[in-house]
Amino acid sequence: MQTKKTFIWIFAVILTISAAIYQRLTGPTHPQRTQISISGQTYKFKLLRTFDGDGDCPITVAMPDTVVKGTLEYRVYPQKVDYTKLEMKRQGENLSASLPHQGMAGKLEYKVVFTKGNEQFVLNNGAPTVIRYKGYVPNFILFPHILCMFLAMLFSNVAGIFALFKIPSRKMLKITLGTIFIGGLIMGPLVQKYAFNELWAGVPYGWDLTDNKTLIAFAAWMIAYLFNRKQESRYWVVAAMVVTLGIFSIPHSLFGSQLDANTGKIIQGSIMPYISMFF
To answer: Disulfide check for 214: which of 50, 106, 184, 233 has CB 3.0–4.6 Å away?
Structure first.
């Protein structure tokens, strides 16, 4: 039994780390990786998609070919207006220009355009990169939130696999419920408050997918807890694990809080304008 539990814990750790890495790397806040070839030379770049500084956001790209010039083009997202163009200044091997500061949850879309002689080269095949501005979240708020949510995913996987192998899982169920509550429903709103000046942007107040994912996970484990109060009901534990693994595999911050530049109010995600048509 103990050997089986050890293997389950090892597998659960691997599964949790894999899901966490996938979620972070595919999320819209992770730097966008792109590359371009100029005169037979390939250059690789990482373009910022989130910024929490107080001032303007510097966009710096390495371009050792000193003949190449750069232009930073930007506009408020999702407005379809002409791009504002800024000449990028050369600093050694780097070209740099700054995007103007935006309010919390404000977004800009931008392009980096290289020019060499009469040729132009646009990063990311011409598709703009969207960057979201947010407030700074102190580490004493952010780290406990991340830790609790990671542990919640881990304990969720352990509880579910325990249930699959008919190992008593009620203790792990309670720990999972507790870590989701602390990390998602207490620390999560504090992170949201610092970042976007809103404690909760999920149902019933909005459609922020991150908040709603947390709410769904907590509800799944609360249901499992209620069905396991008197005796083991492992099917509900497995179901809660599957739900949790599924929703936390969704890219982090997808359809997150977004500032409406016209009204000055924060809406939730790029799907919000379409959803609001039906309400």
So the answer is: 184
**Residue 91, beta-bridge partner list:** 94
- Measured torsion, CA atoms of residues 8, 152, 249, 256, in degrees rounded to the nearest 10: -170
Q: Give start-end residues of each CATH 2.60.40.10 domain in the chain.
A: 32-133
Tell me the residue length of the chain: 279
Q: Which superfamily does 32-133 belong to?
A: Immunoglobulins (2.60.40.10)
Angle formed by the axes of helices 234-247 and 170-180, to 10°?
30
Q: How far apart are CA 53 and CA 98, in angstroms?
A: 12
For the chain, how far is it from start to end, CA to CA, in angstroms? 54
CA–CA distance, 109 with 261 (Å, rounded to integer): 13
Question: Is 207:265 a contact under the CB 8 Å cutoff?
Answer: no
Q: For the chain, 279 residues long, give each residue's pLDDT as a single digit of tens.
A: 688 889 999 999 999 999 888 877 777 778 999 999 999 899 999 999 999 988 999 999 999 999 999 999 999 998 889 999 999 999 999 999 999 999 888 999 999 999 999 999 999 888 999 999 999 999 999 999 999 999 999 999 999 999 999 999 999 999 999 999 999 999 999 999 999 888 887 777 777 778 888 999 999 999 999 999 988 899 999 999 999 998 887 776 655 667 666 666 666 644 333 333 333
Q: Using the 8-state DSSP alphabet, how is residue 82 labeled?
A: P
